[in-house]
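Quick look at the format.
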Amino acid sequence: MQVSWTPFRLLRAAVFAAVSGSASLLLHLWSGGHAPGPLQSAAAFGLVFAAAYAAGGRRRGFLVLAPLCLAAQWGLHELFQAGAVDAAHAHGSGLSMWLVHVAAALAQASWLARGETAFAALLELLTLWFARLVRVAGLNPPAAVRPRRLPPRTRAPRPEPVAYAAISRRGPPRPAF
């Protein structure tokens, strides 16, 4: 099975959106912000889901996920900040707010990268288990797999050392020169 198939891509995008959205929302509420409305929360989830689906064509590692998570944290922070009841509401602004968002994004990227690797390993194990089940049950697989036959390798003849007798290794030692 390929991890990039549409059902798995949708699942990975939903997990990314859920992790990013919930982490950003919890950080927003924890720092004293007002809870966004259901429409604003759904819009945030939808935007992050669409971005994650667009970027989810293949497996991503920590180095690719970290900037994506940081961008999601920043975008969701701005979205939740824009939906604040009063414009003067500036909770957790400054360096401490950005450090918390960077730490959350790095933790989130690490968790997602590990989850991505575990998900790919699980799919591989399920594929092997299913193939073994089909083989043990005696069912014919839908497509016959024939081993590829390669032509036998021939060894190239080694050239005969013609000049072995003509080469003289005699002479003065090297330090003499």
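Next, a different chain entirely:
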Amino acid sequence: MSKLTAKQNINAIVTAIKAEEASLRARYPILKWQNGIAMVILLLSLCSFIGVATLYYVAAIPAWVCIILVALITSIAHELEHDLLHKQYFSQRPFVHNFMMLSVWLMRPNTVNPWYRRKIHLHHHKVSGTSQDLEERLVGNGIQSPFLRAVVILDALLGLLINSKRFSKEIRGFKFFRVFNAGAPLAIAYFGILYGVLTYYALQFVMPFTLPAWGGEFLAVAEFLMVVLIVPNMLRSASLNLITSSMHYYGGVTNVLEQTHVITSRWFLPFQLFCFDFGRTHTIHHFVPNQPFYIRQVISQKIRPVMAKHGVRFDDLHSLRHANRYLAKKE
């Protein structure tokens, strides 16, 4: 590790990131059309999502192919939302900007609405690594119990219910219904269908029964949504929650160098696939937040050695044993 001060190391990393971005933009002038690129990505994602759902509807592809493809598509939508939270696209055109915000939420209905998430995400950058980081704590960061962490990672609503009392005591201004209502109406409908279908099949297993005609029609629609929207987003969000809650520190953090570590372990590769390589690139975002996700992805290979040189840790998975606490290394 470098013998520079934390501030000097941070400045060196930020300088390297900005230099790589400037070099990339100089080589590819098309990157100046940032708004247009984002809109093309959004429209391609929407069309791909609708196309895959249509292929499944006409039985051209099996359910498992649909689930995997939609999970990949919605992982791109998540990255777009992440950039939109920082107002990187159409910030001077509110109608278009909010159209994009709504579109990425419709493709990922198991999340809080992006307008509320903007508040907790920007707050996350200010308090990352502390008990006040609601965004990361909602997805499992800082939880000691492996079982409870798994529950939160797999089911955000159940995690919110379980942790609500603790959050009320530890997080300033936390209100259960403020977070719960931020998911309305999409997340409520999402979890309603999910739990409804699971309950139906559980009851069928215990005591089989026949649904009325209208019930059968409703079940058919619910099962279709399970394949084209609900299960893919379970896969996507669980992968993302596992990665992000593993790489963010909780406690012992004093600066940006200590907020995250970079995950490159091959054991995480299947999960990286469904969250757009989040574990290997997200740390860059903590140093330079206002940067499109595709640029971060392109420059990440050159930036990772720079971060390693200047004190950012890699694959510090031992921190999970200490509820993500950042511990000083023994000399």
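DSSP finds 14 helices and no strands in the chain.

See the schema section for token definitions.
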